[in-house]
Amino acid sequence: MTKQSVSNSSAAQEAIADGNSPAKIIETTTAEVRPTFRHPKVILPVPAPQEKFQHAQPGVPDTQLTREATGLLHEFSTQLLFNHSHRVFFWANELGRQTGQHYDQELLFVCAAFHDMGLLKKFSSAEDRFEVDGANAVRQFLEHHNVPAARIQVAWDAISLHTTPGIVQYKPIEVELLYNGVGLDVLGIGYETFPDDLRKTIVAQYPRVNFKHDIANAFLGGFEHKTQTTEGTCNEDICSHFIRNYKRSNFYEQIHNSPFQNSQV
Fold first, then answer.
1. d(Cα 126, Cα 124) in Å, to the nearest integer?
2. Residue 39 burial (CB < 10 Å; 0-12/13-18/19+)?
3. Which residues does the annotated region (Disordered) include (predicted)?
4. pLDDT digits 0-9 by tens, 121-143
């Protein structure tokens, strides 16, 4: 603890003892002057893909970022995730077109390419959710290319939130598009309203070979060594299905087992 934080703590204690509100204590730093992101304690390097793998697929914006992101999928991912990531992009891209809003197509592809990178051992941390591992990887990748911080934050949010319901509709559109693209490809959400001819074309180009079985196993492989990171998320259902005698924590029990006691009236 720094001297400054010790001072703040003492001041807070004094204010409470005097009956004053701690809210009157002046903050030494406010949020807008601090970095918008805190880097992970352990940084897993994102390598540069070999040049022979750096070829954007037809229909994907052809830029240095998309070529390298595609190269990473080619070199370090699997055919399952390569096809899945591309389908997610094309679903999300069409959904973005339907909104009539402007969106960052290049960044959307990069997000689709990285969104499941955290399932791979090369990019998987010991303690973070796989979504966060992928988000940290994309941040490192984009920082290496000197992409502006605000744009990087959109990508980080999109990947870290791509399995979290109820939030993305209040984030930049790329965050919501990635979420909806993943939802369509994995769960079939929006299947009936998506253009039939385009859906068939995309699946023909990026087949769903044994996808339902294999993607579930890919999820399990991505967090079997850190099942605690799935608690409170949809990924916990994978653990409960595959892992014998899997037991999740219980939020209600945690409330009642808190060491705090109820105050006496």
1. 7
2. exposed
3. 1-23
4. 999 999 999 999 999 999 999 99
Q: What is the pLDDT of residue 213?
A: 97
Distance CA 240, CA 218 (A): 15
From the list 102, 166, 168, 106, the residue with the least C-alpha distance to 141 is 106
pTM above 0.85, yes or no: yes
